[in-house]
Amino acid sequence: MIKKLLLPILFLLSFNTYAQQKSGAQQFWDLLKQHCGKAYQGEITHGMTDAFKNGPLVMHVRQCNDSLIKIPFFVGEDKSRTWVLKLANSRILLKHDHRHADGSEDKVTQYGGLTSNSGTANMQIFPADQQTIDLLPAAAGNVWWITIDENSFTYNLRRIGTDRLFTVKFDLTKPIAAPTAPWGWKD
Questions:
Q1: Which one in 8, 15, 16, 92 has a CA-CA gap of 20 to 30 Å to 187?
Q2: Residue 119 lies inside a defined structural domain of this protein
Q3: Which has the closest alpha carbon to 143: 180, 115, 109?
Q4: Which keywords, in A-to-Z order, does the entry hold (predicted)?
């Protein structure tokens, strides 16, 4: 009788220990990877600018593996933006890959930042890195963060010391048809 009671308890304890061994970054990564291949429509919830008024906002979790996730972000017919996430040593690097319609790199590209810690399963924070500051000195105070849960994904930007705040929120409960390849990619 005691053995029958102890077995489920031991299983739960061992499972809980395994989950605790995964860093926040790895848990976040695993959650995001569940959406690989899927696309979602979004809406601006803070900081609307003219650049984002030209059609539907779509993210497509297009490429995923154990250390790289690429998420093209389309604004109408503008397929120039891809969020590139890289996981290494329980930290995640966020870069913004900007391309022209012919696939060539924009002069303002590859900016972003590296998490300063492992974050949580539902949020990762990316302060601007030195490459970003060298490319865009005004972005020295940029902090990006991404949140994810079972219902939504948000991409956020705050420029510390200013009123600048940008948030786009995607509904993860309603996948849409996957779009064609972003600029610079091949289907």
A1: 92
A2: yes
A3: 115
A4: Signal
User: From the centroid of its chain, how far is CA 184?
Assistant: 20
Any domain includes 111? yes
Measuring CA to CA, which residue among 79, 78, 76 is closest to residue 55? 76
Q: Are 60 and 179 in contact (CB under 8 A)?
A: yes
pTM: 0.87
What confidence tens digit (pLDDT) does each residue in 100-138 have?
Answer: 999 999 999 999 999 999 999 999 999 999 999 999 999
CATH number assigned to the domain comprising residue 109: 2.40.128
How many CB atoms neighbour CB 119 within 10 A?
22
User: Would you state the structure tokens that stand for residue 52, as one six-digit string?
Assistant: 């984002």
Range of the domain at 87: 23-171
In a domain, residue 81? The reply is yes
Residue 35 burial (10 A CB sphere; 0-12, 13-18, 19+):
buried
